[in-house]
Structures are given as C-alpha cells and as structure tokens.
Amino acid sequence: MAPRRALVLIALATALAACGTKPVPRPAAAAPVAAPAAAAAASDAPKKPVEAEWVYSSAGKRDPFRSFLSELSGEKRERETRCATPLGRFEIEQLKLVAVVTGLEDPVAMVEAPNGVGYSLRRGACIGKNGGIVSAVRSDGVVVAEWVIRADGTRDSTQTVLRLPKQAALNIEE
C-alpha cells in the first residue's frame, strides 16, 4: 500500500504544481546561441530568403463576377476588326434608313447614324456591332444578316430589315 500511496502523492503534487504557474510566452523566432566560429561559417554560407506572407494571385483563374460570355469576346473582336467601318460602332437598331436608290445594277441606300452623319450602303457592306452584312437593298428597305450570340452561348443567324419611314416612302411614289 505504501508504494501506491507514494505514487498518488507524487501525482497530486505534480498536478498542484502545474496548476499554479502561468505559461511562459515563447519568442517567435528564438535563435540558439552559437559559438563565434559557427557564426563566421554561417555568414559565408548563402542566406536563406525570408518567406513572405501568403499572397493571392488571380493569374490563370476565372473571375467569378465576370460573365461567361466574355470568354467569347475573342470572336467579337474578330468581327469588330472585320467591320472596321464607322457603321461598326453602332447597333443596327440605332441607324435610321433615310433613302434608297434602286434601278441601278448595284442599288444604294443611305442611313443616318445617331450622331447625324449619313452613310451609303451597298450589298455586302459591313454594318453594326455584331458584324452584320447587307444582304439586299430593296425599294422598301435594307436587309442585314448577322450572327448573334445568345445567352446560352449558341450562335444564331438573324435578319434585320431597316425600313424607310412612311413619309419617305410616300415621297418616293409621288
């Protein structure tokens, strides 16, 4: 019983001694004390660079706040460079058809841009931000064929007809 009692007393004394002391804070980078010869040898060796804090780099990662359609912008840039005319800066709906001259081998139409400048159109001319091509110039309007990228990423061919205002059509018939 005596050895057991001594063992219990030692465990109790250890527990009481550990409860009463505060932990000593350790220094962040404690360098061991080295001999002067070891310090001289260490100064000759190349120093290890200090590691910088972790920094986030977005290189090569997709921006979660950008539309997935922006990845298709490379195709759009091709169309913009292909349609390098001043009419490539405007949407087709912004242009107003002012006049149509038919009866020629190559009919001509005139459109007015939102800034008030007039431009002539012939078949095959590039027009609009989507890279539309004038497919036909008729007496009642101009037909523009273009490729439109939908929200799901598919490309659809659409035809937009720019029509003469009714006043201009009445003036032509007189």
Automatic annotation (TrEMBL):
This is Pilus assembly protein PilP. It holds the Pfam family PilP. Residues 1-17 form the signal peptide. Keywords: Signal. The keyword Glycoprotein does not apply. It comes from the Bacteria.
